[in-house]
Amino acid sequence: MVLAPPDRYVVDMIRAFNLTLAQLPSKPFRQVFWWSALLSLATAVILWTAVVWLIANTAFFGSLPYVGDWVDFAIQWAGGLAAFLLTIVLLPAFLGIFASLFLETICRAVERRYYPELAPARDVPIWESVWTGVRFAIIIVFFNILFLPAFIFLPGVAYWILNGILLGREYYELVAFRRMAPRDAAALRRRRRPTLFMGGIVIAVVASIPVLNLLLPLFGTAFMLHIFQGLPGRPQQG
User: Fold this and answer.
1) Are 204 and 158 in contact (CB under 8 A)?
2) How far is Cα 40 from Cα 47, in angstroms, rounded to an integer?
3) pLDDT tens digits, residue range 155-182?
4) Assigned domain for 18 exists
């Protein structure tokens, strides 16, 4: 593991952050966001409609005399509200999964604007993009549930540390595997772990801010690509 002076980490983070913010309003980023948002909203509506239909067409206590219909009505009302809240909670996860379909567009837009000297990266198959998004969502949800007690006793800090590790690694692999073999990318990650962890902390802070976290897939991808391009030992071409 290679350590750099603290001021080097700060400079790298500020540079990557500023470059990412400058490009967020650009056309490719807007298109990816609106397509992802539209697909996520459609998925949330379909999920909510299906759950409400299932609850409305299931008789839970209808056979009970006098109170059965009232109890079923209460269950249907509460179930519909719970389904609505669930879709709101899952909306960022849906957004992340659908945005993964377009992350190659984000990477190419960043490279075209800031790193035009690079040779084209390998084409990423759609199935690989989908699997990356699904795996990403599963890992984040699983570990955040597992460490939920730590978030209660150390709010903010524990969340940022855990997700700094997870998000730093996941977004690094997302951009690094486009240009490096997995074994070489893993070796580079081990050598530059502090830098990637600090980058993950920045992404985790963005992920913890409501509304802004909807931009997480776009921000995280572009931000980590800038971090990757600043790593000593990365491929200079291709």
Assistant:
1) no
2) 10
3) 677 778 888 888 888 889 889 888 888 8
4) no
- What the block records as the tokens of 190 is 């081990």
Q: Is residue 20 part of a domain?
A: no
Which residue has 């960043």 as its token pair? Answer: 110
Question: Does residue 11 form part of some domain?
Answer: no
Q: Alpha helices of 4-125 — where are they, by DSSP H?
A: 6-23, 27-56, 68-99, 103-114
* Residue 27: burial class (beta carbons within 10 Å; 0-12, 13-18, 19+): exposed
When pLDDT is cut at 50, 70 and 90, the band that residue 199 belongs to is very high
Q: Residue 192: give the domain boundaries.
A: 26-226
CA distances from residue 193 to 147, 165, 200, 227, 228 in whole angstroms, order as listed: 22, 9, 10, 12, 12
